[in-house]
Amino acid sequence: MPTLEQLVAAHAAAQGDDVAYVGGEQRMTWREYDARAEGIAAALVDAGVAPGDRVAVCLPDGPAVHACFVGIERAGAVVVGIGPRAGRREVAHLLGLTGASLLLWASDPEDPPGGVATIAVSETDLPVGRGAPAKRGEDLDALWLLNSTSGTTGLPKCVMHHQRRWLAFHDLAVDAGELSSRDVFLSALPAPFGFGLWTGHVTPTVLGVPCVVLPRFDAEACLAAIERERVTVLAAVSTQFVMVLNAPTLDRYDLTSLRVLFTGGEMVPERRAAEFEDRTGCRVLQFYGSNETGALSRTTVRDTRERRLRTAGAVIPSMHVRLLADDGTDVTATGGPGVAACRGPLCCLGYYGDPAANDTLYTPDGWMLTGDRCTLDADGYLTVAGRASDFIIRGGKNISAAQVEDEVSTHPAVAVAAAVAMPDPVFGERVCAYVELRPHAAPLDLAALQDHLVSRGVGKELWPEYLVVLDVLPRASGGKVAKGALRDDVRRRVPTAER
Length: 499
Known about the structure:
Blueprint: H1 4-15, E1 19-23, E2 26-29, H2 30-46, E3 54-58, H3 63-74, E4 78-81, H4 88-98, E5 102-106, E6 117-121, E7 145-148, E8 158-161, H5 163-177, E9 185-187, H6 194-207, E10 211-213, H7 219-229, E11 233-235, H8 238-246, E12 260-263, H9 270-280, E13 283-290, E14 294-298, H10 305-310, E15 314-315, E16 322-324, E17 338-342, H11 355-361, E18 368-376, E19 382-387, E20 391-394, E21 397-400, H12 401-408, E22 414-424, E23 428-437, H13 446-455, E24 466-470, H14 483-493
Parallel strand pairs: 1-10, 3-4, 3-5, 4-7, 5-6, 9-10, 9-11, 11-12, 12-13, 23-24
Antiparallel strand pairs: 1-2, 7-8, 13-14, 14-15, 16-17, 17-18, 18-19, 20-21, 22-23
Helix pairs in contact: 1-2, 2-3, 5-6, 7-8
């Protein structure tokens, strides 16, 4: 299998005038993509970048970030992908952790962090050099890219990637969505993260098809791009597709080209996913896994609607998925529940420069842990109960935050919901729900929410005891709800949250 930079060169030769990327007003053909990547590679060589050096990229999503990734690859260096919403402290931490010798940084925002040499990059002005780049070669197992976890507390860890894992992921995606060279992608995810890598950088390149990227996610812009570019495959985390679904103008757009939505990154809300299918005519699919593990299971266009929307899909045989009880006992045969673990070709190479973090990522016998508590049915379909660590412990009772969120999200006024633990002197923790309301929805208070849950027959243990309504829930770099920010916020709200 060719490397990604070799595929870009091949498409430039065979279909040079076809569009590779669309980002806002920018359209980049395969020939331009190849030439810009070559110019970046040459500029890096001129700057003294040697094979194996780490080069960081922190840019808004657009065609330029992909040209930078390929240019770094061509120079024989390793990409350090940093999310465009990363703060200066996070950027400085990642530069230091990875030992990056150079930073490709957007030319128009604030000055970049110090400590490394910087090259300014914009969509209309990419670096050009005359140095002869050292081609990467064909080692698909070599370290190719480092990206940060999209966790929301503390400083991020760096995950090590080789191209082989994402090319294997691509093969599974093609089969799941019955993808072809006739498809047009829209990836709403930041390019450096796992979901964004395969939907925005890897699979469109392997197929040689156009990919629409958004400098910053906006539901209206997303809808307009689907109609304008006749997008067939949309990739978005759950909060993003819910925002699209909530857009007041949704029904004004022609979305008949759309046939597949790949989603995930957090628990997929079944009711909203069903509504998305009904209103757009596409099928909602997901891969379950993480930046570290890759995929453990998947749904496909051949699955029934119940399987697609109520489970995380059938386990992928090559990933050898196991469920482990809290004491490490293998409970796969009985269907769990247990923390999902795996060992297979989609797994990353571990964390970069962080032995302590690797000790928590792997079991002593080498299985990679997801941190999610799951069950497995007799047909091999996985269901995710929630993060093993994302439980609210109220008076000694473990309450799944994911279950609370799923129930709260059924209220017709609620667009997005997140549940976190609020410290309590008597019970230790109580359930606090944060919600973002749909446009033009009537105000929502705790009593009305609880009445709704009563009407659904929801047990009291899943009722929020506090409610905080925000205009917009905070998002992490990867687009998911920033639970860490909410946990920080809830501690400040202890005396004042509605009860």
